Structure prediction request, 205 residues.
Amino acid sequence: MFLKKIPKWLQKLYSGYVWEIPPREKPTVYLTFDDGPHPRITPWVLDLLEQYSAKATFFCIGKNVIEYPEVYADILARGHRVGNHSHNHLRGTAYKAKPYVENINRAKQYIDSDLYRPPYGRIKSSQSKILKDIGYKIVMWTVIPGDWDKEISPEDCLENVVFNIAPGNIVVLHDSEKAWERMSYVLPKVLEYCRKQGWAVEVIS
Prediction:
């Protein structure tokens, strides 16, 4: 089980992380994608975002950037933003601070960004302190529909977004094989929902 929407008390408890974005003049939501780039799925996402004049933030894995540099370059060329998601998708709670930070720094050679999202949302306070000291903003999320979970139907995944999303929220989806069935169903409908609400979809700045 997971929290579909992060409650305010939990955001306050871990206030050193970015959970949502302060209100802007135009109501805005922030779509993010984890685990790419992927040679087929990421370009599909980019094309769909372009149809809706939407921008997103892609938290990339270093080894995937090495494998698919042209897809990574296309993310940037289309005006989206990138963030570091470690080099090998490490679960922070399974590692000591030094090797964990070294893995992130390895990814930094290929991902030029001061944004970092811990895989699985798991990170130790000692690790986050080091990362913040060297200039990273640790970005979590407000709404997570669970598109990676094969036990969740695409329809339920969509409901997890539209029943919880509000301006200022950060939403997590995944441009990955395991999420494809659900993400490909959810994304166009969420973009259409945001359009009908009059909400902008922008990068995390």
Notes: The chain has a mean pLDDT of 97. The CA atoms of residues 5 and 143 lie 5 Å apart. The radius of gyration is 16 Å.
